[in-house]
Specification:
By secondary structure, this protein is mostly helical. It has one domain. Helix content is 74%, strand content 0%. The chain has eight helices and no strands.
Length: 209
Amino acid sequence: MMIDRDTTSILSQLAVAYGCMLAIPGPNAAVVLQSVRERSAFKPVLAAAGVATGAALAAAIAASSAKALPQGGTIRVAGGVIVAAVMLRAALRLCGPPWSEPAANASTKKPSPGIAPFALGFATAALNPLSVPYFAAFFVSHACTPTAMGLACCTVFLMAGAWFAAIGVAASRLHGVAWSPLCRRAGSLVVAAILAGLATRSLWLAFSL
């Protein structure tokens, strides 16, 4: 299947924006790191697969919702504003007080049997209240075709799975190693700056239609 230039551009923009969102510590990372605390090499990957599946499902629901919306200038402007608002919220969160390890509160939990890490990761990602509105707004603001939406869902699955699996494997290998607060702060500010730039670009595109 040949992918046209517009679809490639849309997927590239989604990859950059979603990649920055993945870098923000939150419930998804907490689920993966919780499985690391259970001292199992397999469970972090299982949790990451659950998160990826839940995120892809949220993107698919958003794609279905976006198809039902009328395609017009006002809708695209509204979509661009929502995308910008979500990214600005994430950037401001990163600029706030330094974050603590998401899994700190999970240390007292008992080991989870079977595929519980997958189920927990799936539920956490799929039920994120910002996921569906964000993806729907992105699809609408970029006037995505059905093909682009389908490829976007695949991109979300692959990116989330790879990112959280890498976090889980790295955390299991570096268990007990503390990162420098300065390094974590610098990384947070860099990601926040990228998100702010993407939000500004989204607003500019929305109002220049």
